[in-house]
């Protein structure tokens, strides 16, 4: 009996550990996927999530290192990512450029700029100096975490899983209902979604398609900035080259899987978080009969899963009707 | 501030345009256009494609800015920098292509329209922008979804619902607020558009080619709505190219030609013929020279074709037709009733699912059905040519040079080169020959297709398909977006093809065109063939009824084949 | 929409857009505190003047011709192949697997073509899967090829850690392919002919790349297949109308694209390096996007753009030597800017150029367009 209890406790701890790690890994995905959702709901494809994430991460770490304040870092990340979003908007909305091309440009620009400026500023081969604890966002213990610690199941779940994360994690989870509310419960959201479906209708109703799309794209920039700050001044303690490591792309995949709806997208992000967390654990595992699974292949599993999921083995996703098409007033 | 006339008893015009000029690069779309529309009337504007009608109303609705000229609304000079300003001035517009978000509910679409009205009302209250006379909209309507809660949607939703109820009571314009707009029938969608405009306080309603998507029956009901709006004091500006509608509905009419306003008439004082010659600038034959010929052997038989789209909705139900050499079978119907699907099946673009198509050439016969599919390439090789309904999307590759377009669909043939190689010289020669044969201007094979006028683009497509000397010719909307001058030439070509022995299926939403060219006329409604009439027995009224789905009771089976053996139990689909 | 004469459209406009990209880069260099003109001079020196500089420039250009052509062929069909990077990596695995298993068995003259074919085949296979997924399963090719890049990287690492690894090496890499089974170096050939030539990694892969460009031009502009490809790229409804099998052609376009990307590996595996190492593709697949956009997806344009990028990369290496504050990632910045200006913002300057041309010509021809 007591043995069973112990076993259960161990398993719970294992599960909690995995879930905790999944949440940490899912956080940048959630923020970026929400960013992509807002942008694409307004009809602008956002392949540039990756680049904005990377640029945000660099700006946050660089400014946090220079000023010693994670808040300044967060602000810098948001401003930087916003600037890149503005470039995307300028190309895709003002000049009706190809949105995917613009996104690719943003990503490569971010790869180049972060290293160029990083070397110019810090001479550390493109990294920023490691940040001290007080230069990062600390873990936040939610009220009652201590008090509840003794309660079985609920205690550890609340204390280890829900409490004790860094600020951007909570921001990410807050972003989901917020985006949902903004898009489906406000007049702005009504117009924004309409612009992604049928911009001509919005134009004819006397609203500016350009202004609406810009707002969506810039909002996406802000969210990516928060995600970037999370990577380098919360989850990590400094910037390293290419630290976004494809998370922007995974977020994009999660957004498609969640069919451009906040809650399903959140679930997809968490799923990817679990996959990645699980992969990290699998690394040290040996599957009986198969021998050692090569680490590097295990790490690739989330990507393979994405491909399979996107190939429609999960049902069809219908994107916003006007996605990817620049708005031209017809003659 | 020009005083609105000395005679105070006469109401000023609801709309007055003075010397409106608009250029697009070297093209003058509107040249010093004047227009005066009396309040509470239905005023028509007619003109050919490209005469400048759409540009003119786009300026009135704030889509474009005039290069010169002035606008007065209800006697007061106004600026209309954007659509929001137009809406604030009480101008509403119903576009030819509906401006409705298909996956929004009716209510949401109405709210979307109300956004700008609300914003303009705020701007008004604070006395900014929108120019003088922004409060003109006579008894400035409540403006749906007025900004009670500035951000939230709930207040706007309530307000819009109330507006819908009010409009239903005032004008009898009932719409289902919670239905998904895209699921509604076209006529109802159009009503939503009108409601949308009225909900944001429109007193002037601009309608751009509103009847193109309606059955004759729906058109009649639509006209009734417009008359009742007029009775309530709404001013209606009707843009159309259908003279019949002008005569039936309007009080006054203005005629445009080549960017100029060439005449204003009271409808009571004019005739169709006069308007037609004003539009074209010369006398026109409204009917083509139609010579009855003896139909030859059967070339194509469509047998009980049923076709469902991806969603499983039957777009064609049990359609059977016969095409004979030297005969034109006209397919009449309102757009979107299965004509496109039928053309796709017969040209091999869509795969036959149920039923079959038999191609007969002399003794050879070939059957196409679900088990024996054919693609457009195969069918072209068998002598089936296809002039697609939409030349911009399908018939031409607009960024390509004319010579590349001259072999589109025939890219495997000898006109494109030898062996597996492509020969620009051969394509150029082919293109030049086509251009000569059909008088395409300018006759430049290197010019991009996008650089030709609509009529010349269409001639290029027709030349390509006709010169392939097909046994079966499928023609969709041959004169859509083509000016009247070119229409005559195109009709003559089609008749010449018939006389040369081609079996022709002519699909057109223009009843006049069908009547002018066809030997027999089939009518399609909601994917079903309602009946087939010989030309002699067909008239507008009868065809109109059939287009609305009413079967011709007094006609026997006019077509061979099982189509009219009409014991087809209920397959009522939406 | 404004139309420009062909020379302005294909010559002036790209030149202006590239100039803009360089201008912005210059501003960044200035902000960093270095002299942009000096930095440019350093790059030019490294790319052209140093002994072997041109050889290196052409060596890099070889990579970019292959990846640029790969992206361009797909782009002609309006398929955005972001996966040249992964397809090149697979090409590397294919070439290495064949070369390493045969180079000690068969004569070099037989191994080389086999290895080249293997590179193309592996790249083809890696591209045709996303093509199939788009054509038949409806997943977006952009997303899929991005995922395939990452998967390819994982696969390469796995192969290098396992089956292909040279156990004598501390780092995960293969052994070197036997000299005889590699492409001869240009400097060796030149010296055989009695010419002076500085040592560089330039091999016969460069003429092979030029040959590929010619073949691609023929394929796209002089075959019926290429015609169908271009129709599909400009208008899918028109392609369907014309009886062009769009799905099959999607596979075909991706197959050719992937094979070209895979051939990039030849320049490395059968070239100077002679072995497969981790991340040997080094982002060249992405550079291919910039090259294709700059070259307007035309083989001639691609070759010219590849030469420019070759010079940039070689010049960037020189920057690394000379400056402490500027790194070769500066080239990445230029690359991003070129994609931005030549790709996404390609229409930005059109009205300006049109106006300038009109003003320049004056009233003498006011016809504009009919």
Helix content of chain A: over 70%
Percent range for helical residues of chain C?
A: over 70%
Number of strands of chain C: 0
Our count of helices of chain C gives 15
Classify the oligomer. heterotrimer
The run of helices and strands of chain A is HHHHEHHEHHHHHHEEH
- Tell me the major beta sheet of chain C: none
Strand content of chain A: under 5%
Main sheet attributes: strand count, strand direction, barrel closure of chain A: 2 strands, antiparallel
Biggest sheet, spatial arrangement of strands of chain A:
1-2
Number of strands of chain A: 4
What's the shape of chain A? globular
Q: What secondary-structure arrangement, pairings included, does this model have?
A:
The complex is a heterotrimer of chains A (331), B (574) and C (370).
Chain A: H1 2-41, H2 49-67, H3 70-94, H4 99-122, E1 139-140, H5 145-148, H6 154-162, E2 165-166, H7 167-184, H8 187-197, H9 199-204, H10 209-235, H11 247-257, H12 262-282, E3 286-287, E4 291-292, H13 295-313
Antiparallel strand pairs in A: 1-2, 3-4
Chain B: E1 15-24, E2 27-37, E3 42-47, H1 53-60, E4 68-73, E5 76-78, H2 83-88, E6 91-94, H3 106-125, H4 154-171, H5 186-199, E7 204-208, H6 216-231, E8 235-240, H7 243-249, E9 252-257, E10 260-266, H8 272-280, E11 298-308, E12 314-324, E13 327-332, H9 339-347, E14 354-361, E15 364-369, H10 376-381, E16 384-387, H11 391-395, H12 402-405, H13 424-438, H14 454-466, E17 472-476, H15 484-499, E18 503-507, H16 511-517, E19 520-525, E20 528-534, H17 540-547
Parallel strand pairs in B: 3-8, 3-9, 6-7, 7-8, 13-18, 13-19, 16-17, 17-18
Antiparallel strand pairs in B: 1-2, 1-4, 4-5, 9-10, 11-12, 11-14, 14-15, 19-20
Helix pairs in contact in B: 3-4, 3-5, 13-14, 14-15
Chain C: H1 6-32, H2 36-49, H3 53-76, H4 84-102, H5 108-137, H6 141-161, H7 186-192, H8 205-222, H9 224-234, H10 236-241, H11 246-269, H12 284-294, H13 299-322, H14 329-344, H15 350-361
Helix pairs in contact in C: 1-14, 2-3, 2-13, 3-8, 3-11, 3-12, 3-13, 4-5, 4-6, 4-11, 4-12, 5-6, 5-11, 8-9, 8-13, 12-13, 12-14, 13-14
């Amino acid at each position: 009996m007591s043995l069973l209890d112990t076993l259960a406790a161990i398993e719970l701890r294992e599960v909690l550990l995995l879930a905790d790690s999944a949440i940490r890994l899912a956080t940048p995905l959630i923020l970026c996927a929400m960013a992509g959702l807002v942008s694409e709901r307004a009809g602008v494809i956002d392949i540039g999530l990756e680049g904005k994430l990377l640029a945000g991460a660099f700006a946050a770490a660089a400014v946090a290192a220079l000023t010693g304040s994670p808040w300044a870092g967060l602000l810098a990340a948001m401003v930087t990512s916003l600037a890149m979003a503005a470039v995307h908007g300028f190309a895709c909305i003002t000049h009706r450029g190809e949105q995917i091309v613009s996104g690719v440009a943003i990503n490569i620009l971010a790869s180049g700029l972060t290293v160029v400026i990083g070397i110019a500023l810090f001479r550390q081969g493109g990294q920023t100096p490691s940040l001290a604890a007080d230069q990062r966002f600390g873990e936040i213990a939610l009220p009652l975490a201590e008090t509840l610690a003794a309660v079985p199941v609920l205690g550890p779940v609340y204390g280890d899983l829900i409490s004790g994360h860094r600020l951007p994690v909570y921001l990410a989870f807050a972003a989901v209902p917020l985006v949902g509310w903004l898009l489906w419960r406000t007049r702005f959201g009504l117009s924004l979604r309409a612009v992604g479906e049928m911009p001509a209708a919005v134009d004819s109703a006397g609203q500016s398609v350009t202004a609406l799309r810009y707002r969506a794209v810039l909002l996406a920039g802000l969210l990516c900035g928060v995600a970037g700050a999370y990577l380098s001044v919360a989850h990590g303690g400094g910037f390293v080259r290419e630290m976004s490591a494809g998370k922007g792309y995974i977020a994009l995949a999660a957004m498609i899987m969640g069919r451009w709806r906040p809650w399903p997208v959140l679930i997809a992000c968490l799923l990817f978080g679990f996959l990645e967390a699980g992969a990290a654990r699998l690394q040290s595992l040996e599957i009986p009969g198969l021998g050692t699974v090569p680490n590097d292949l295990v790490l690739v599993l989330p990507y393979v899963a994405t491909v399979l999921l996107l190939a429609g083995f999960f049902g069809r996703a219908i994107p916003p009707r006007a996605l990817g098409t620049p708005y031209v007033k017809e003659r | 501030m020009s005083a609105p006339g000395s005679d105070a008893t006469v109401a000023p015009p609801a709309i007055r345009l003075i010397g409106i000029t608009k250029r697009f690069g070297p093209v003058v779309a509107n040249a010093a256009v004047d227009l005066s529309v009396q309040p509470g009337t239905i005023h028509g504007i007619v003109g050919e494609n490209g005469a400048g009608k759409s540009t003119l109303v786009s300026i009135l609705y704030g889509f474009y800015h005039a290069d010169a000229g002035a606008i007065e609304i209800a006697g007061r000079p106004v600026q209309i920098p954007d659509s929001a300003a137009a809406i604030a001035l009480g101008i509403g517009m119903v576009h030819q292509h509906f401006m409705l978000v298909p996956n929004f509910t009716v209510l949401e679409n109405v709210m979307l329209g109300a956004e700008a009205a609300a914003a303009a009302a705020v701007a008004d209250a604070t006395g900014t922008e929108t120019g003088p006379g922004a409060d003109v909209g006579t008894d400035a309507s409540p403006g749906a979804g007025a900004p009670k809660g500035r951000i939230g949607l709930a207040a706007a939703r309530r307000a819009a619902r109330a507006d819908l109820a009010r409009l239903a009571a005032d004008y009898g314009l009932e719409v289902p607020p919670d239905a998904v707009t895209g699921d509604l029938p076209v006529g109802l969608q159009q009503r939503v558009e009108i409601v949308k405009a009225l909900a944001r306080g429109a007193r002037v309603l601009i309608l751009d080619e509103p009847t193109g998507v309606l059955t004759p029956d729906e058109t009649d009901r639509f006209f009734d709505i417009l008359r009742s709006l007029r009775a309530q004091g709404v001013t209606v500006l009707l843009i159309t190219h259908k003279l019949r509608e002008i005569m039936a509905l309007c009080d006054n009419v203005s005629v445009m030609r080549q960017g100029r306003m060439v005449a204003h008439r009271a409808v009571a004082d004019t005739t169709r013929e006069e308007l037609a010659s004003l539009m074209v600038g010369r006398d026109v034959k409204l009917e083509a020279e139609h010579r009855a010929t003896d139909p030859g052997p059967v070339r194509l038989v469509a047998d009980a074709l049923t076709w469902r789209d991806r969603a499983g909705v039957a777009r064609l139900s049990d359609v059977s037709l016969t095409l004979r050499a030297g005969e034109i079978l006209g397919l009449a119907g309102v757009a979107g009733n299965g004509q496109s699907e039928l053309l796709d099946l017969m040209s091999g673009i869509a795969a036959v699912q149920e039923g079959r198509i038999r191609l007969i050439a002399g003794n050879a016969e070939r059957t196409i059905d679900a088990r024996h599919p054919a693609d457009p390439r195969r069918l072209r090789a068998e002598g089936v040519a296809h002039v697609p309904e939409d030349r911009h999307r399908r018939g031409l590759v607009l960024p390509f040079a004319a010579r590349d377009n001259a072999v589109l669909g025939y890219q495997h043939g000898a006109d494109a080169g030898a062996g597996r190689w492509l020969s620009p010289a051969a394509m150029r020669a082919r293109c030049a020959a086509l251009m000569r044969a059909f008088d395409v201007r300018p006759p430049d094979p290197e010019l991009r297709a996008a650089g030709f006028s609509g009529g010349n683009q269409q001639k290029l497509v027709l030349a390509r398909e006709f010169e392939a000397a097909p046994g079966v010719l499928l023609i969709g909307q041959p004169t859509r977006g083509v000016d009247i001058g070119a229409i005559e030439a195109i009709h003559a070509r089609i008749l010449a093809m018939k006389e040369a022995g081609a079996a022709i299926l002519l699909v057109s939403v223009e009843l006049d065109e069908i009547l002018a060219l066809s030997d027999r006329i089939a009518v399609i409604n909601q994917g079903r063939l309602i009946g087939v009439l010989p030309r002699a027995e067909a008239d507008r009224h009868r065809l109109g009824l059939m287009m609305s789905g009413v079967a011709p009771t007094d006609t026997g089976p006019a077509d061979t084949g099982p189509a009219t053996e009409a014991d087809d139990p209920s397959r009522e689909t939406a | 929409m404004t139309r420009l004469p062909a020379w302005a459209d294909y010559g002036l406009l790209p030149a202006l857009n590239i100039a803009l990209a360089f201008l912005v880069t210059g501003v960044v260099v200035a902000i960093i505190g270095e002299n942009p003109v000096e930095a440019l001079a350093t790059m030019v020196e490294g790319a052209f003047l140093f002994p072997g500089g041109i050889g290196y420039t052409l060596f890099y250009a070889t990579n970019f011709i292959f990846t640029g052509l790969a992206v361009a062929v797909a782009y002609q069909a309006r398929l955005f192949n972001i996966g040249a990077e992964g397809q090149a990596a697979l090409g590397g695995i294919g070439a290495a697997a064949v070369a390493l298993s045969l180079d000690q068995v068969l004569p070099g003259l037989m191994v080389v073509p086999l290895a080249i074919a293997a590179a193309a085949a592996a790249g083809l296979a890696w591209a045709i899967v996303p093509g199939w997924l788009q054509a038949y399963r409806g997943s977006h090719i952009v997303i899929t090829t991005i995922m395939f890049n990452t998967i390819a990287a994982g696969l390469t690492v796995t192969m290098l850690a396992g089956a292909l690894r040279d156990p004598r090496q501390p780092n995960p890499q293969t052994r070197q392919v036997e000299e005889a089974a590699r492409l001869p170096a240009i400097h060796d050939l030149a010296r055989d002919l009695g010419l002076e030539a500085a040592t560089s990694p330039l091999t016969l892969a460069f003429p092979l790349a030029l040959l590929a460009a010619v073949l691609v031009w023929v394929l796209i502009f002089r075959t019926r297949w290429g015609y169908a490809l271009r129709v599909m790229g400009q208008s899918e409804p028109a392609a369907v109308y014309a009886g062009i099998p769009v799905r099959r052609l999607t596979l075909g376009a991706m197959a050719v694209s992937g094979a070209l990307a895979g051939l990039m590996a030849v320049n490395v595996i059968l070239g100077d390096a002679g072995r497969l190492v981790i991340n040997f593709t080094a982002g060249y697949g992405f550079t291919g996007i910039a090259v294709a956009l700059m070259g307007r997806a035309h083989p001639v344009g691609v070759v010219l753009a590849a030469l420019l990028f070759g010079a940039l990369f070689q010049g960037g290496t020189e920057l690394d030597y000379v400056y402490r504050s500027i790194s070769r990632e500066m080239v990445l910045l230029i690359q991003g800017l070129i994609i931005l200006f030549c790709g996404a913002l390609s229409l930005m300057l059109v009205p300006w150029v049109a106006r300038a041309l009109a003003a320049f010509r004056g009233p003498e021809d006011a016809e504009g367009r009919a």
